[in-house]
Design a protein that fits this description.
This protein has a domain at 21-81. It is built from four helices and two strands; from the N terminus they run ββαααα. It has helices at residues 43-52, 55-61, 65-70, 72-81, and strands spanning 21-25, 38-42. This is HNH endonuclease.
Length: 99
């Protein structure tokens, strides 16, 4: 791991090159965030965010990395995944949210 690797804002692990990653819009594109701020994160962390929260919840209450880390399910997930190497991938644990 290179100390210059970006840090995932959810699990706070480094994101080395070649690790599955994606860009998360802090305000969902469908809720007016198309040109808004984005953060680079592990793909597994990004999938967990969208498995946990609706677009409306993200726009209304969880539009910062700090707010995302404070969500109970995401905090539990972040603590769990933080114990894994940065290259760890898995299916998103837990039930998908109901719409």
């Amino acid at each position: 791991m290179d100390p210059s690797d970006p840090i995932c804002p959810l699990c706070l692990r480094p994101i080395p090159p070649g690790v599955p990653q994606s860009v998360h819009h802090l305000v969902p594109r469908l809720k007016g965030g198309a040109k808004g701020p984005t953060v680079l994160m592990h793909q597994i962390c990004h999938k967990e965010i969208h498995a946990t929260l609706t677009e409306a919840e993200l726009a209304r209450d969880y539009s910062t990395p700090e707010a995302l880390r404070a969500h109970p399910r995401l905090a539990t997930f972040a603590a769990w995944v933080a114990k894994r190497p940065p290259s760890f991938t898995s299916k998103v644990p837990g039930a998908r949210r109901r719409r």
